[in-house]
């Protein structure tokens, strides 16, 4: 692909045309990789999918080949999404101190709400739960 771009530049091909060929090549590459896999669901993530044109082209080609494509909605696909994912894992690890069980209602460390199928976030750990002495809230005056 790099050689094709260099040749196009030497031939004075217009930059928008080179960019279109670049995006189409990447979308084709993604499609060929996905088509080697048996699964029908595809999740696209990473900073490159902040590029709307690339995301649209890849989604279009994958959907045309019968795949279910999922993109980010609430968090960005780049580093912000990675940080959100890391935070979600950390929260879940803290919340599962006694294991969560469906149908048990509100637990002290977090719970599953069966009616709405939402995971409630646990309250922060107390100083004692973290194995620390509680901090004094009063300041000594001499």
Protein model, in words:
The protein is mostly helical and 142 residues long. 42% of the residues lie in helices and 7% in strands. It has 2 domains: 1-77, no CATH class; 80-122, no CATH class. The protein has 4 helices and 4 strands. It has a two-stranded parallel sheet. Helix 3 (52-64) links the parallel strand 1 and strand 2. Helix 2 (15-34) packs across helix 3. The longest helix is centred in the first third of the chain and has 20 residues, at 15-34. The relative contact order is 0.08. The model is unreliable at 103-121 and 137-142 (pLDDT under 50).
**Biggest sheet, spatial arrangement of strands:** 1-2
| Mean pLDDT score | 76
How many beta strands in the DSSP annotation? Answer: 4
Number of domains: 2
Helix/strand class: mainly alpha
Separate helix tally: 4
The radius of gyration over CA amounts to 25 Å
Question: Any key phrases for this structure?
Answer:
single chain, 142 residues, mainly alpha, two-stranded antiparallel sheet, 4 helices, 4 strands, 42% helix
């Amino acid at each position: 692909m790099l050689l094709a771009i260099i040749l196009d530049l030497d031939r004075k091909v217009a930059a928008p045309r080179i960019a279109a060929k670049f995006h189409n090549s990447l979308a084709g590459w993604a499609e060929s990789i996905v088509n080697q896999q048996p699964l029908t669901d595809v999740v696209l993530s990473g900073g490159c999918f902040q590029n709307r044109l690339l995301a649209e082209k890849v989604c279009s080609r994958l959907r045309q080949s019968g795949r279910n494509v999922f993109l980010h909605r609430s968090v960005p696909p780049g580093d912000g999404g990675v940080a959100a994912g890391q935070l979600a894992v950390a929260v879940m690890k803290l919340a599962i101190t006694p294991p969560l069980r469906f149908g048990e209602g509100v637990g002290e460390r977090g719970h599953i709400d069966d009616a709405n199928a939402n995971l409630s976030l646990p309250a922060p750990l107390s100083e004692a739960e973290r194995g620390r002495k509680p901090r004094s809230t009063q300041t000594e005056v001499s």
